[in-house]
Amino acid sequence: MSGDVEKIVDETAERASESITSPVSGVSEALGAGASLLVSATHLRALRLRQLVKIELPGYLAVQCSWFMAFGLQLVLFPYLITGRDHLHMSGLALGLANMALSLPSVIFLLIGGVVAERADGRRLLIILHLLAAMPALLLAMAVSRGELSYPAMILYAVAIGTIGAFMMPARDSIVNEVVERRMRVGSGVTLQLGVTLATMAQFLAQIVGLILAGYADKATKMPAWLGGFSVGPMSPELLLAIQGLALASGAGFALLMARGKQVRTGRKGVGAAFGDIMDGVRAVRADGKLWAMTLLMFGVGVFVIGAFLVVLPIVNRDVYHFGSSGIRDMFVTFWMGAFVSSAVLAVFKRIKRQGRLLLIAQFLASASILLMMGNIPHWMFLAIVFAWGLAAGISIAMSRSIVQDSAPKEKLARVLSIYQLGFMAGAPFGAALMGALVDLFGPQKIAIVPAGGMTLLIVWMVFFTPVWNMKGSAWLAHEAKRTPPR
Fold first, then answer.
1. Residues 6 or more apart from 256 whose CB is under 8 A from it?
2. Burial of 21 (0-12, 13-18, 19+ CB in 10 A)
3. What is the pTM of this model?
4. Gap between the Cα atoms of 262 and 268, Å rounded
5. Distance separating the N- and C-terminal Cα atoms of the chain
6. Taking Cα atoms as reference points, which of 166, 400, 403, 114 lies closest to residue 280?
7. How far apart are CA 107 and CA 286, in angstroms?
8. Which of 258-262, 334-338, 446-450, 471-475 has the lowest mean pLDDT?
């Protein structure tokens, strides 16, 4: 597919056409014409392959956008339907348990999802999973439109979408490595770190779009005069849920733009094959200090940060500032806008020397900012803290994914990614239930010290007892090796 390959093919075919002779009149000319036809066919095939490779990365980013636009809608609609005064109007503990149902399936199925992602054709798997994920949202939209919304229906939705997500995450995240590799083979300057950062930017931008749409669920929003002064909304929750389902279904179409994924064969057969493959992935993580440290860090993020993010912030929005879905929208849009800004800045730097150090500093600043929420601060200051939290999240998400993608053995990449994500997902249900109970006991502001203190202790441990603080990025090392002349 590369230009070097085409050049070699051209030269070989030209030499072949020049050297062909025959005692039979006209045969030499015919063979020469055949060789020229071969060259032309090779050119056309190479051109087509290059076009397919060039469109594959945008296709992958569109798949990313379809899932996370739906996720942005879910971030607002899920707590709004459970806690909203016009809907179920349930407690913080009920919301925490519902979020636990949303994330618990990942704990159960995520490792199996990593094995499936390696054995299956990645493109086909993405198509199937996107179509399956559209169904729970569409069915929930039907229930809301009929006035049949109930807490058990929300739990069923959570379990279904959480289970599908457990298979989606390793399939989607591992295939970016192949997309970047094929892109580099046709002469692109895209590095793995840049590819991960672009995927992260697409994720954040799509989530922001979904969050903005979901914020129109309870009231109209008037645009400023310089935009025409028109009003948008209110949009019914069932319409927004239908949009969520259609966005997920569109991901199946975007996946058609991608090449077939590589399929790993470990040689194992029988019932115990999946378990044996999973244990190989676990051993790979335990054997690498960076992978093990990143998995433990993600567990801490799941317990302390995601619990506060999914449970505490919606309750603060309702009980402290007295907003509905529009307040949840403003809060989450602010957070993900911060994450998008920081990831966009990171995209400028293709090679970062101290990825782990940048990650831990960002996590520490985010943890410290949570403490400010303990006071009676105005809403604009609350949103400013959320924005700073988002800036740190954008850095930590992009850097942690790059570290894991760099460090993982390529033949075990999906399994390693599933274990890394399991650290995050295993902490999330525990954190959601814990924060939900603490919110009901002490109120949403006083418990800010729990996530801030827990993350600070974890970061200190990471600095002194893991290699993450002093590690150097592989892209930076490779670049320095090229610049250093051999002795």
1. 59, 123, 127
2. exposed
3. 0.66
4. 17
5. 34
6. 114
7. 18
8. 471-475
